[in-house]
Design a protein that fits this description.
It is a single chain. With about 260 residues, the chain is an alpha/beta fold. It is about 20% helix and about 25% strand. The termini are close together. Citrulline (CIR) binds next to loops.
Length: about 260
């Protein structure tokens, strides 16, 4: 199964309302012009990696809708419309349903009471990890496993370490059997059989990196992580996401990615 070979992606342009997005630290006020700049560079980097990117229009009524990873999960042969666990984000589903229907023959959906954010879903070649979190509840995770099975994928429900927003805040896939993970995630013991590259002290927020085709997108403000990735042989694309990080977000959350026909 292709897990980081992508030729298509959806992103959503940030609206002016993006500065009102959910964030843990109310003092970290983001600047919308800087967010737009970071977002544009991210879209350009996807294009440079060989991905055809559809930029959906901003949804001013939904400040966090720029984080398209959370309301959906996509594969080349089908998509799943999720139900974001934050009440202010649930309404993103309507526009996302239309976006998926226009691009995928098969779209499955979670039902009422079943919450799951795409940020809690880590797709690896053999198993799709679904992290329980403040956004993904047990009913949502169980329902998601059933929908994954319908798409021929095996899911596994796991715990998200305390204190992180999403499962993938703390871990990302670097290649078919290597993960970048925080020490807490490594200590969870969930990843038997994987090689683990641990985020350096002071850079645990770098764990949300993004493998795209032959390269790894990583936060530009995490130089030690970039060095470690480069030493391990990865082609690192440093991207500025400092402003986006003020909204508790990283690199995976800004796009939905897939490979047509796989
Ligand atoms: C939220 O709290 O929902 C947004 N401010 C950030 C979402 C980040 N999503 C992700 O990492 N998948």
């Amino acid at each position: 199964m292709r897990v980081f070979d992508f030729d298509r992606a959806i992103v959503r342009a940030p609206g002016r309302s993006v500065v009102a997005g959910l964030r843990e630290d109310p003092r970290a006020v983001p600047d919308d012009a800087k967010i737009r700049k970071e977002h544009a560079a991210y879209v350009a980097a996807l294009g440079a990696a060989g991905v055809a990117v559809d930029v959906l229009p901003p949804l001013e009524a939904f400040p966090d809708s720029v984080f398209v990873e959370d309301p959906a999960l996509v594969f080349g042969d089908g998509a799943i419309l999720l139900r974001p666990g934050a009440p202010s984000r649930l309404g993103e589903r309507h526009a996302m349903r239309q976006a998926l229907a226009a691009r995928f023959d098969r779209v499955l959906e979670l039902g009422d009471g079943e919450s799951a954010d795409g940020g809690d879903v880590l797709v690896t070649p053999d198993v799709v990890f679904v992290g329980l979190s403040g956004r993904t509840n047990a009913a949502g995770a169980a329902a998601l496993l059933a929908l994954l099975a319908a798409l021929g994928r095996r899911g596994r429900i796991v715990a998200t370490p305390p204190g992180v927003l999403h499962f993938k805040t703390a871990v990302s896939l670097l290649d078919h059997n290597t993960l970048l993970a925080t020490p807490a995630m490594v200590a969870s013991g969930l990843f038997e059989g994987f090689n683990l590259l641990v985020t350096p002290q002071g850079e645990h927020a770098a764990a949300n990196a993004l493998r795209v085709n032959d390269r790894v997108f990583a936060g530009a403000h995490f130089p030690r992580t970039a060095d470690a990735l480069a030493r391990a042989g990865y082609a690192v694309v440093p991207l500025a996401v400092r402003e986006i990080a003020r909204l508790d977000a990283g690199l995976s959350c800004l796009s939905l990615r897939w490979h047509t026909g796989a």
